Amino acid sequence: MKLQERTWAEISLGAIEHNYNAIRAAVPAGTRFLGVVKADAYGHGAVEVSRLLERLGADYLAVSCIAEALELRDAGIELPILILGHTPADNVPLLCEYGITQTVTCEAKAKEFSDEAVKCGKTLKVHIALDTGMSRLGFLCEGRHFEEGVKNVISAVNMPNIETEGVFTHFALSDEPGEAAREYTEKQLRLFIDVINSVETESGFRFKIKHAANSGAVLSYPEAALDMVRPGLLLYGYGDGGKLGLKPAMSLITTVSTIKHYDAGVSVSYGGIFKTERRTRMGVIPIGYADGLLRVLSNNFSVYTDRGFAPQRGRICMDMCMVDLTDLPEVNLDSRVEIFGKNAGLEALSQRAGTIPYELMCSISKRVPRVYVD
User: Fold this and answer.
1) Would you state the pLDDT for residue 68?
2) Which residues are catalytic?
3) Predicted confidence band at 374 (pLDDT cuts at 50, 70, 90)?
4) In angstroms, how far is CA 18 from the centroid of its own chain?
């Protein structure tokens, strides 16, 4: 039996290539392209996606942690890799050995990295992160912190055995509609540029790469493209509102494993939250919350078959759930069922779950095989 005959995720590399080219066409010529492949490329498979991006001519990759970076290096990926998140300083020798770029978020972290790099006699390449309003990681530089932030960045870039290649910030509201979101994003961008200008004027240092444009900014703030853009969700086919003609790359597929018939008044699954109201032809599909189908969706969405949509019934279990096939008599054992993909939209499903497409894609567990097409 093939592994994918239970439940699998189909990943269209052709769709990702299409999206890459569409994004490239939307940003100024000569702008570097950083592909965000953290969280296993949003569930699409970081190694396969990175190989594709490398072949297509991307300039950089971004991951969240050193384990993700080393996975790519072990797979033979040679593109520059930026770690966006935290790395313990004692991993500096590994970062240097594998040519991985590390984000520096404050002066104290820069000092730790510098000390370790000096100790092992190597030079660590870094990008400086500026907190311009995300209130997450980065050198504080807003308001009364501006002068101190500039001073701390200058201190960091001058530390021994630290090669500062780039500087970046992250927008908090660039994908949100409305004038307030626009004002906030434009304020972040102005602050980012002001800090860079002050650092470069006061120190004589020059950043080689300045980057700020996440997916939302790629779409709505062309002035934020600067030297490099960092699309994440756009690369996988979501978040453009039809503006770029992107193609969703992932389809989550399963099959009908069992069919049973119940009389009216029968409770279905844990908790009895659904009872049949008529004689019901019920299918069992082998996908549950351990595969990434969120339990919060229980009794609140429909799956797609080649004969139409079938409502999911009762609580989603760890490894399976039930779907009502009463009105779809031609759907039988082993029939293909799409949870989301070309016919069942991920964005609509995420709205029903009260979340965002990112979470549903990243939730697809490792036990679900990725099958690459195109």
Assistant:
1) 98
2) 38, 270
3) confident
4) 17
